[in-house]
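writing this on my phone so excuse typos. first protein, seq and then structure
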Amino acid sequence: MKIFVSFQKQRGFGLVEMLIGAAVLSTSLLGISSFFQKTLEVSSLTQSAVQGDYLLEEGVEVVKLFRDAGYANNIVKLSTTTPTYLAWDGTNWATSTINVFIGGKFERKITVSEVKRNVSEDISDTGILDPNTRLVAVSVAWNVKGATTTKTIQTYITNIFNN
């Protein structure tokens, strides 16, 4: 019994396999590259948002430091008509009317408003001015892809130390 096996040459089959393999590999590498590029972009946006949040929190803490050092000398004297900026001189915090960009990217400003109370001593839009309470808004703004992102936090600061 003889078994005949026929081996026919299949010309060009190896070349087609190499072309298909190269196309699959190129597509895979392009997809992975696009994924990592998008990941880095989102990471950069997240980093800016986290930095902005920290700057907001720091702004509120600085206002509390001013209050603790002397409400009458530091808080009452802040303008209620124009924004105030914070400046760090390496040792102490100070207020400024000149905008200070943090890291060349972030703008932080503080806006102080007077607080009024009604006859029930609740905060209201009308009523008697409360000299021992101020509404403080800290805003941080930065530019993302040609658009400005702004975050704001508000808190009441009171003269708890009667100073």
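second protein below, same order as before
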Amino acid sequence: MSLADRRRRTQKLEERVNKKFAETDLPSSRQERVIEATRNPFTWVTKYTKTWNEHWVEENRPEPSEHFPPYEYFQDIFDLIDECRVNFFEKSRDLMISWACVAYLTFHAMKTPSRGVLMQTQKEDKVIQLIEYAKCLYRMQPQWLREAFPLTKPIENQPALKLEFANGSYLAGIPGGADQIRSYHPWSYLNDESSFQPEAGESYNQALAVVSGKIIFNSSSGPGWYADVRHDIIRSEEE
């Protein structure tokens, strides 16, 4: 499929979602407001929701919660995920790449019914943090957006490893290990800090088999499978 074909397909999917949303019981003025706020991930993260920053004092920020800065590379990331089934991102902490990936997936789970998102890190406490990113982005929206995209139950009652929407979509977190993926058949899969997961390569193979939509690997630099696959290096098992 060509790049132009992918873009046309993405546009048609967005039109279908917006048409379906227009059939809800919300007043037309509210529908228009919601459609505008969620017309794409970049608009949503830079104008209608916020992240949190534990280091806001040290970094001389005005407050701990802020919108995504309107940097062009965030739009580039969202476009790449839109256009490609599989993406590999090499990151540093200051670039907010993990936040951007989680935001993209949360946006689509929230807006599109029956989309499952699976997130994986080496340790459970780290994947809980990713789910907390998603919960933060949902929580920091205006109330009228939360009402337009309700959860199955209040956010404070959601499990630490899950965020479930009333539309049948969900985000779930799992610890490292290729065997953790087999029982899921999600729309999307995010593997965060892949350089530090010994089974990242096996997890990638499992994801190819079970994921119907987007596959994202995201990590800082480090030796191993992730660095090799980023640079098209093929090694034998003995190496």
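The chain has a mean pLDDT of 89. thats all i got for now
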